[in-house]
Amino acid sequence: MASLQFDRTRKQFVIAGVNLPDSPTKIRLPRGTSKAEAEDALTQIKTRELGRRLGTVDEASERLRAFRAAPIEEHLAAFEKALLAKGNKEKHVNETVAELRRVVAGCGYATITDLEDLSRLDAYRADLRAKGRGERTCGKPLVVVKQFCRWLVTSNRATRDPYCGIKGPSEATDRLHARRALTPAQCVALLEAPAKVGMSYNLDPETRSMAYLVALNTGFRLGSLISLVPESFRFVNDRAAVTVQSGRVKNKKAITITLKPTVAAAVRQFLLGSPLAFPCFLCPSCTPPRCSGGTLRRRASSTRRPKDAPTSTPYGTPTPRSPRRLAFTPRPCRDSSATRMST
Fold it and tell me: Global pTM?
């Protein structure tokens, strides 16, 4: 049974002999705590101990109490593991958790109960705005905190989401860099640039130009673009459809886009003689270096020979395309878009 003691050396009350699963055996109350407040705390602990012995304590309430008292770092580690278990990309998880840790440090959160103080996050965002940050940067802390609070509720670590119903700022009201489509002249200049530059980032001009052409006509992101293999394309007469698997799309949903006849003809000619199981827009004999965003890149692990690829498949040289490579034979599209393309 818990008992109240007074530490004359440290001049503070101590509750010793605590027998609760979420508390240490000795609890030191803050200095300056009056004897009446210490006795109230002792009474609460004795009530919980008695309830556990009699079986009248709700286990769910005890578990929630333990979660509320635990350091927020424990919840952050569990949140990171949950994001990885859902199949999110490691890069996305690292960026989300890093931003969340910056918010926790900036707002001074110690436990998840501190998240209920909305004024801390408002002050943190106001400080970012005072430093000249855009609305997207100022709104990101709110996004990650709301995501974290939703996970706390769904994982039964909290009973309510204090940020439910709070909307983030609109980027359209204060956009520092407005997005726009390329003009026809800029598109032509982009397609002609590889021929003028030559070999760049271990990609020959033909491969770079075709990658730009497909990107302009599909809108694929870099990760989706470099995941394309010859079997991703399906041809029907003079048209073609390209499919990106769900693991390479940001929203985790497979997408199929129909190419224009002129683009389909150029892609068909480009793919003839390409390896079957190798990315279309990557030189098979080269390992491109790491480079900044916006340029075609691929990690060295992606250039390894597939395990199921025949050992006799030659890699050849980037230019010209080796006639000894496995020939690619265009196959007709059998998905729902084939009907639309053939009509």
Answer: 0.54
